């Protein structure tokens, strides 16, 4: 996943937003990720995830309570991780992974997610 440093070492000079060679390079990333961040944030963070990861380095948070819900899944390790996610919520047997635009299938409330180092996924769950 693309990592962006927005501020310089002194947090003042030469920051990302004042350097066209940086913000033009990252424009496609922002066009994709900012709307996803907005959708997830507007759904509202929920303290109980209703899901769990089979890997201690892959963390899950839930956003949204009624209707569509989102799970953000993050690999905090420096290594690729394949983990099984177990869902304790009612959801359809298929959902979408919004970062990559792929379909996700659930079997008996479980799916496998593969994440590169420090990578994330956003799963859209429908009732």
Word description of this protein:
The chain has helices at 20-23, 27-43; strands at 45-46, 51-53, 58-63, 69-75, 81-87, 94-97, 102-105, 110-115, 120-125. The protein is α+β, with helices and mostly antiparallel strands and 127 residues long. The chain has a domain at 45-125: Immunoglobulin-like, CATH 2.60.40. The strands form two sheets. Strands 1-3-4-9-6-7 form a six-stranded antiparallel β-sheet, covered by helices on one side. Strands 2-5-8 form a three-stranded antiparallel β-sheet, with no helix packed on it. The protein starts with 19 loop residues before the first helix and ends with a strand.
Supply database-style keywords.
127 residues; alpha+beta; Immunoglobulin-like; 6-stranded antiparallel β-sheet; 3-stranded antiparallel β-sheet; 17% helix
Low-confidence stretches: none
CATH level-3 fold name of the domain at 45-125 = Immunoglobulin-like
Biggest sheet, spatial arrangement of strands: 1-3-4-9-6-7
Number of strands: 9
Rounded radius of gyration (Å): 16 Å
Report the structural category: alpha+beta
Q: What can be said about the biggest beta sheet?
A: 6 strands, antiparallel
Main CATH class of the domain at 45-125 = Mainly Beta
Q: Which CATH-level-2 architecture of the domain at 45-125?
A: Sandwich
Order of helices and strands: HHEEEEEEEEE
Shape: globular
Tally of helical segments: 2
Strand residue content: 35-45%
Euclidean distance between termini CA atoms: 29 Å
Query: Helix share of residues?
Result: 10-25%
Mean pLDDT: 87
CATH superfamily of the domain at 45-125: Golgi alpha-mannosidase II
């Amino acid at each position: 996943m693309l990592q962006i440093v927005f501020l310089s070492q002194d947090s003042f000079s030469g920051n990302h937003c004042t350097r066209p060679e940086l913000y033009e390079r990252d424009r496609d990333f922002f066009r994709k990720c900012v709307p996803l961040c907005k959708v997830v944030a507007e759904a509202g963070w929920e303290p109980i995830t209703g899901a769990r990861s089979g890997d201690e380095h892959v963390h899950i948070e839930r956003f949204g309570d009624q209707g569509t819900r989102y799970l953000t899944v993050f690999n905090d390790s420096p290594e690729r991780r394949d983990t099984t996610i177990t869902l304790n919520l009612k959801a359809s047997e298929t959902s979408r992974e919004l970062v990559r635009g792929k379909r996700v299938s659930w079997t008996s409330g479980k799916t496998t997610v593969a994440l590169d180092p420090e990578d994330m996924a956003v799963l859209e769950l429908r009732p």
